[in-house]
Write a structure and sequence with these properties.
Structural class: alpha+beta
Distance between the termini: 80 Å
CATH class of one domain: Alpha Beta
Order of helices and strands: HEEEEHEEEHEEE
Shape: elongated
Strand content: 15-25%
CATH architecture of one domain: Roll
Largest sheet: 5 strands, mixed
Strand order of the largest sheet: 7-6-10-8-9
CATH topology of one domain: Outer membrane lipoprotein wza fold like
CATH superfamily of one domain: Outer membrane lipoprotein wza domain like
């Protein structure tokens, strides 16, 4: 009888140990997910969230007058013939397809079949101690060092150890080391600081 109760006690201790480990793992994964950047990379066109100055390619089958390229305005709207102003910012291409199809179906287009693709991502911006600051077109896989190269390289006053980066939609800059491959996303603002002599 005593052996059975000690074996049950060991089983209970083992279960408590397993639960404690599971709690630690869950806590670590929550902490790690909280550290991810606010703006997710456009890993695929279907998961990319549209924003102002993105350009879309719209195809409405059987409606050549509606088919074409449209730019999302600063207010986040896209103006489509026979559909009107559609909210595009904050939506994926698939969500925008549904919104456009729904708006067209209320008008004279019967059973609209809509396809939306990204024609051109919104640009990123680089300023500070680079030779040609300004607005540049985004491309997949872009890093801060690639952006610096596109802007003609560093000036002689540049601090080549760190970069200030404000993600699209974020209110504050974050500091990153330049010896790491820091990714750039559409709409980002990059600032190369001046070094102190």
């Amino acid at each position: 009888m005593q052996q059975r109760s000690s074996s049950a006690g060991l089983t209970l201790h083992f279960l408590l140990f397993i639960l404690a480990i599971a709690g630690i793992v869950a806590s670590l994964s929550l902490h790690a997910s909280a550290q991810t950047p606010r703006s997710a990379p456009p890993s695929s066109e279907e998961s990319y969230v549209l924003g102002p100055n993105d350009r879309i390619r719209l195809k409405v089958y059987g409606e050549p007058d509606i088919t074409g390229e449209y730019e999302i305005s600063n207010s986040g709207q896209v103006s489509i013939p026979l559909a009107g102003h559609i909210r595009a910012a904050g939506a994926t291409t698939r969500q925008l397809e549904k919104s456009i199809a729904s708006a067209l179906a209320k008008g004279i287009v019967r059973d609209p079949r809509v396809n939306v693709e990204i024609a051109q991502y919104r640009p990123y911006y680089i300023l500070g101690e680079v030779k040609k600051s300004g607005e540049y077109p985004y491309r997949h896989g872009l890093t801060v060092l690639d952006a610096v190269a596109s802007a003609g390289g560093f000036t002689y006053r540049a601090n080549e150890n760190k970069v200030f980066l404000r993600r699209a939609g974020a209110g504050t800059e974050e500091t990153y080391p330049l010896d790491a491959p820091v990714p750039v996303y559409p709409g980002d603002n990059i600032r190369i600081p001046e070094r102190y002599f």
